[in-house]
Amino acid sequence: MKIKKILVSQPKPSSEKSPYYDIAEKYGVNIVFRPFIKVEGLTSKEFRQQKISIPEYTAVIFTARTAIDHFFRLCEELRVTIPETMKYFCTTEAIALYLQKYIIYRKRKIFFGNSGKLDDLVPSLLKHSGEKFLFPVSDVHKEQTSVLEKHKINYTKAIMYRTVSNDFGPDEPFDYDMLLFFSPSGIKSLTKNFPDFKQDDIKIGTFGPTTAQAVRDAGLRLDIEAPSPGAPSMTAALDLFLKEQSKKK
């Protein structure tokens, strides 16, 4: 079966230079960006149920821009004034720079790692071991926090947002030849939206081992898996797959 229409379960790229556009032109396929999941913030009432008082903390750990948005949103809703002395520890420089949306960027109170992993932040956290850290996360957070326990970092997880299914409308067409997923939540949303889903000739691709396993657990066939040898990204894996398909004509 020739692949003509591909669903990428992510938001549309902000840049025209996305590799997906190059692939669409190269192979003459229609690529549609349509997330299966969306993020929604906890209400201030729901957050209060965790019995966490934000003013008691002197530092915050951020692993995502979404966490920053919901932290400051909840502070506003709860009428919490964040002191000038608050310190921020981010897993990447890009996340740290995003703080400028909410605060004046001062290097003496903002710290960041390079790898995107918590391990990379440990030296900075240990230098400020006297702080009391708040760690905003989602309800399905993937962060491996064992490294924080190992180094006896004084921190508290605070669920501030959740991942929910981005349901398809009754008149929304579902006529795709290929589906690309990036999280187990996307697979859950697929089976929720289409409980009678039959894969047949539809190809399924995933990024990351946990998403690949979610496909297998759902009893579906996995056709593309990234990262893999020669395909470090989803776009590289897609390019390879379509190249092989075009040879079979």
TrEMBL record:
Any single biological process term in GO: uroporphyrinogen III biosynthetic process
Domain of life: Bacteria
Chain ranges of the Tetrapyrrole biosynthesis uroporphyrinogen III synthase domain: 24-235
Molecular-function GO term, any one: uroporphyrinogen-III synthase activity
Ranges annotated as spanning the membrane: none
Entries under InterPro entries matching the protein: 4pyrrol_syn_uPrphyn_synt_sf (IPR036108), 4pyrrol_synth_uPrphyn_synth (IPR003754), UROS/Hem4 (IPR039793)
Pfam families in alphabetical order: HEM4
GO cellular component: cytosol
Protein name per Swiss-Prot or TrEMBL: Tetrapyrrole biosynthesis uroporphyrinogen III synthase domain-containing protein
Source organism of this protein record: Barnesiella intestinihominis YIT 11860
